[in-house]
Specification:
18% strand; 15 helices; 5-stranded parallel sheet; single chain; FAD/NAD(P)-binding domain; alpha/beta; 8-stranded mixed sheet; globular; 2 domains
Length: 509
């Protein structure tokens, strides 16, 4: 029958390592972490492009149970965050549980045995519970550009940076103006012969108030931990107060928009270039980006902004949708990731023999951002509608870890070979409530098209509330939202109270 574990965690980034720590703290040691790469770190391992850094303050972008008093800067760079995750793996004794170079090829629910059969590139195993922590920023998204296959130069995505290719003295085209591109452009601009940026839609950019954290501050945080906690709490509180402007009162973002326009005016003296860089949508509709050197880089004489998307490649000539042409030796795509169509969903086959991708073809939805109908004993970290537009995703991850821990406790209470299956009515009710709240948010009313939206135009990515509210809603599992499956013939089992609550839910739905 092969190896069996109680819990299989997929991915060793923030979500996967956080899940592993929480499992150990719950006294669960019968688990494994399956990681496709040869080291931990997730997106902070994969994204190593020049200038890569976080746009969330360091003391907020870390686990509450693994504080780091020695962050060197207020906004940490990729090497520091990756090193932090390596330390987490060591400090909490996770290495024996992690299987590197074990890419999950398929996960299939066995309704008779009530477990998941998992095939990986390193072998097969089964698990009672699967915690999928692959993350939404793990699969690069490359546009289909006619003629790209015939480009004679170098082509790569920002998340698959080719460090063996020297950009110095080259003509480089950067496609996209998202969070990665605005860091790459100023980092490589001083070294390249010519840089052409293809911009489909300009982002709103605010100054990034990054600085070195002094030795005195670090000493204080080490010696007096409450100062570190106070700093984190202040950073969290400020962002919680901002949420209502994004979710209920987008008109209040006008002041922030004025500050962003002033930021353009300070750096860009060419009126034509300034006009190209000024968005026509409400600030916050797309993620607000932070950079103090992006606009100055675009003002350099050897940097060109093409205010149109890349339409075609003709040999070494890149042609924009407006007809503008530019020659290039290398193309760097900063075009984001498969967020609303995560490829891992094609590899998960549930109780009805359908893949998760098929189940989600009309839009991702999961109960409390964690569990999907038809996929017993399976949950995801950073699931549908758990993303944030202004704060730290680590806060949301920790809330989902609370939910995971209580989910496993409920299985223990039930005893025996058992599984929990999210009721379709509960999933549907949760999703309708989230989407109803989404209607008035800046992400839906701000007049832009963003990666938050799926192919149907629905926002299945962002959470329309505060992180504090989400934590309250995911503190414990509401058993009325689940069916209990037991091994005897795979029959469902309901207590009278749970059945009555479920019936009421069905009627409300």
């Amino acid at each position: 029958m092969g190896e069996h574990v109680r819990v299989a965690v997929i991915g060793a980034g923030f979500g996967g390592l956080g899940a592993a720590v929480r499992l150990r703290r719950e006294g669960i040691t019968d688990f494994t972490v399956l990681e496709r790469a040869d080291s931990v770190g997730g997106t902070w391992r994969d994204n190593s492009y020049p200038g890569c850094a976080c746009d969330v303050p360091s003391h907020l972008y870390s686990f509450s149970f693994a504080p780091n008093p020695d962050w060197p800067r207020t906004f940490s760079g990729q090497p520091h965050i990756r090193a932090y995750l390596e330390r987490v793996a060591d400090t909490f004794g996770l290495r024996p549980h992690i299987r590197l170079r074990h890419e999950v090829q398929s996960m299939r629910w066995d309704a008779e045995r009530l477990h998941w059969a998992i095939e990986t590139s390193g072998g097969a195993l089964t698990a009672d519970v699967v915690v999928s922590a692959t993350g939404p920023l793990s699969e690069p998204k490359l546009p289909e550009v006619p003629g790209l296959a015939g480009f004679p130069g170098k082509v790569f995505h920002s998340a698959r940076w080719d460090h063996d290719y020297d950009l110095r003295g080259k003509r480089v085209a950067v496609v996209g103006t998202g969070a990665s591109a605005i860091q790459i452009v100023p980092a490589i601009a001083p070294d390249v012969q010519r840089l052409t940026l293809f911009q489909r839609t300009p982002p709103w950019v605010m100054p990034r108030t990054d600085r070195a954290i002094t030795a005195a501050e670090r000493w204080l945080h080490r010696q007096l931990p409450f100062t570190r906690a106070a700093r984190r709490g202040l950073l969290w509180g400020i962002r919680e107060l901002q949420v209502s402007a994004f979710t209920r009162h987008p008109n209040r973002l006008g002041l922030i928009e004025s500050l962003a326009k002033a930021n353009i005016a300070r750096s860009i003296k060419d009126p034509e270039l300034a006009a190209k860089l000024t968005p026509s949508y409400r600030i916050g509709c797309k993620r607000i980006l932070l950079s103090s050197d992006y606009y100055p880089a675009l003002a350099r004489p050897h940097v060109d902004l093409v205010a149109s998307g890349l339409e075609e490649v003709r040999g070494s000539v890149l042609v924009a949708a407006d007809g503008t042409e530019a020659e290039a030796d290398a193309i760097v795509f900063g075009t984001g990731f498969h967020v609303t169509d995560m490829p891992i969903a094609d590899r998960v086959v549930g109780a009805e023999g359908r893949t998760l991708a098929d189940h989600w073809k009309d839009g991702m939805q999961a109960l409390r951002g964690a569990t999907a109908a038809g996929f017993p004993n399976w949950m995801t970290i950073i699931g549908p509608n758990t993303g944030l537009g202004n704060s730290s995703m680590i806060l949301m991850i920790e809330s989902q870890l609370n939910y995971m821990a209580d989910y496993l406790r409920q299985l223990d209470v039930l005893g025996g070979r058992v599984a929990l299956a999210a009721r379709p009515s509960a999933v549907g009710r949760w999703n309708r409530q989230v989407q109803a709240r989404m209607e008035r948010t800046v992400w839906n009313t701000g007049g832009c098209t963003s990666w938050y939206l799926d192919a149907q135009g629905r926002n299945t990515t962002v959470w329309p509330g505060t992180t504090g509210e989400f934590r309250r809603l995911t503190q414990t599992v509401d058993m009325a939202e689940y069916e209990v499956l037991r091994a005897r013939g795979g029959t469902r089992e309901d207590t009278p109270a749970r059945a009555a609550a479920a019936a009421a839910g069905e009627a409300a739905a």
